[in-house]
Amino acid sequence: MVESEEEKHRYPNEGVGKKAQWSGSTDDQEKAADLEFFHNHKPVFDLDELLQASAKILGKGTLGITYKATLESGLVVAVKRVKEIDSLTEKEFVHQMHLLGKLRHENLVEMISFYCTKDEKLVIYEFVQDGSLFELLHGSRGIGRIPLNWTTRLQILKDVAKGLIVLHQSLSSQKVPHGNLKSSNVLVYFTNETAHAKLSDYGYLPLLPSLKSTFAIGKCPEVIEGKKTTHKSDVYCFGVLLLEVLTGKPPGDDNHEDLTNWVRGVVDSDWSMDLFDLEILGEKDGHDDMLKIAELALECTEALPERRPNLTQILTRLEEIQYRQVSIGVN
């Protein structure tokens, strides 16, 4: 998800018959079969209830439009209407959804259900209430803003690493298990002022390989040079995320190689304090650890994939930093 819109609206209704635009089904029996749930402990709803829900656009991205849908029962879900699927067979889509629907982890956005016909493909997820990391880092900077402190940023990064490890273990046969890791696809919620992060929009790359240049991995050196992608392509994207969290600078569509080069230049020139987001610059106890994160980020964004660390190594280093922070706080 890359951009938000505040205006609330009803789902479009120019589709087949009087169904919403994203519904390719007109038969009640077919609808019941096509809205497939992955588990039984979630409240179950049918396609009619979903289409009649009030909706708000959460974002428009490479994969399509994502809506926040509030059903009449009060249940709130996120609904992604997948676009760019003309080359997909229903069999391919359903197979990948079944793989993704089995994934259960506290750092992955949970898939509840999906709907698949020849013309329409919807994926229904749990709704994560406090927005994306992109919004928390870059939204409404100015008077009245509550910035993300360094401890919170570090906790989010650790959660992202944990989620990636699960994806890489569960989807080990897929070349790039996430494929679209960026701050807008890291969703955050808070409990008692503690941040928790969940990864979203994972697992779509095998369905749309011809569009990989438009995914986050499209900026990896190996993709730009037409070489093969690997699990280390996700690591590169994680490195860019580390830099974004550290510097407060959004990578953007065209300049995130510039961000990595800028950070390398600053480190080489020993202007280390110029690296940090002004919102965390005042947290002097964390400066040494921030520099360690910068070093880790530069390792993750090495041009040669084999020189990048693996995710287990990354998580270990993040946990070591967090442990030092806790020790300092106790002392």
Automatic annotation (TrEMBL):
Gene3D superfamilies, sorted: Phosphorylase Kinase, domain 1, Transferase(Phosphotransferase) domain 1
GO cellular component annotations of the record: plasma membrane
Disordered: annotated segments: 1-25
Compositional bias per record (Basic and acidic residues), positions renumbered to this chain: 1-12
GO molecular function, one term: ATP binding
The UniProt record lists the keyword Transferase: yes
Keyword Nuclease listed: no
Short name of any one Pfam family annotated for the protein: PK_Tyr_Ser-Thr
Span of domain Protein kinase: 52-321
UniProtKB keywords: Transferase
Entry protein name: Protein kinase domain-containing protein
